[in-house]
Design brief:
Helix content is about 65%, strand content about 0%. The chain is mainly alpha-helical.
């Protein structure tokens, strides 16, 4: 098979828009392929990079993506976005599908569809990420399902979940705490109810530049350092100053060998001159 298959994402396949119901009706109207039809299309794609065959395979399986995406509706994310992520997983599955293995495309594609939706849920369910490792993601989705059915877990229930998933009780309790946390807006307006004042972080966290006197002191120190550096550079001989400027200050920095060739000395000599000049600058700046 030619490995230079064009990305299936370039195919003209509809994505959910504002009218989700119309999209679902449209994909549901696409006929389901028979075993023979699916195999013939997959062989054309696998052997000849036939993008028309790929389009037919994807379109005929979009209804399955809708079905899977709807099962993730409890995370508070737009179903249309979940479907679109699932469609990406479907296209990845079609690209990798091997008809010689003797399995149906839908069985192969389920993994890819769910993987893309899982990534989307993890990225967007909380501003602060609740799961970053593979083990945490597995725990996130399993524990989310348990909590949907049982509410807050008791110690015995959490212990059973930990045993079922092969993790520690502490892991389960930590993830449960993350699931129960709420995102907080950094600069939310202050509540007008004096009895229920909830301050946003922006109202009590101290900014690094909040003190005007510290800002003035910092600016003066930076100005003094700039004057000292300019004075120190002016006290260097022309060659040493040129070496420093081209080695440290220029956008296109010169190498030791380039400067050695230009001045007719060894690269080691250029390094010695550079170190000597840096030492002089350091003495002036520390004075």
């Amino acid at each position: 098979m030619n490995t230079q298959l064009k990305p299936l994402e370039t195919l003209a396949i509809g994505v959910p828009g504002d009218n989700l119901d119309a999209y679902i009706r449209a994909v549901s109207s696409v006929p389901v392929l028979s075993v023979e039809e699916e195999r013939a299309l997959a062989e054309r794609l696998y052997a000849d990079d036939d993008l028309d065959a790929a389009r037919s395979l994807v379109l005929s399986h979009l209804r399955f993506v809708v079905h899977i995406a709807r099962s993730y509706g409890g995370y508070g994310l737009p179903v249309g976005d979940l479907i679109q992520e699932g469609n990406i997983g479907l296209m990845k599955a079609v690209r990798r599908f091997d008809p010689t293995k003797g399995v149906r495309l839908v069985s192969f594609a389920v993994h890819w569809i769910r993987a893309e939706i899982h990534e989307y849920v993890i990225r967007n369910w909380r501003i602060v990420k609740v799961a970053t490792t593979k083990a945490q993601r597995k725990l996130f989705f399993n524990l989310r399902g348990q909590k949907t059915r049982l509410g807050r877990l008791s110690v015995d229930e959490a212990t059973k979940v930990a045993a079922d998933l092969g993790v520690t009780l502490a892991d389960v309790q930590e993830m449960e705490g993350r699931l129960g946390a709420f995102d907080s807006t950094f600069d939310a307006p202050e509540s007008g109810d004096d009895d229920k004042v909830v301050l946003a972080p922006a109202q009590y966290l101290i900014a690094d530049d909040a003190d005007p006197s510290e800002t003035v002191d910092r600016d003066q120190l930076e100005q003094r350092h700039s004057r000292q550096l300019a004075l120190a550079l002016n006290n260097l001989d022309q060659r040493s100053r040129d070496i420093l400027e081209r080695r440290w200050l220029a956008d296109d920095k010169a190498t030791l060998q380039e400067l050695a060739d230009e001045y007719g000395v060894s690269a080691e000599r250029i390094r010695q001159l550079e170190n000597g000049a840096i030492g002089k600058l350091r003495n002036v700046m520390q004075a």
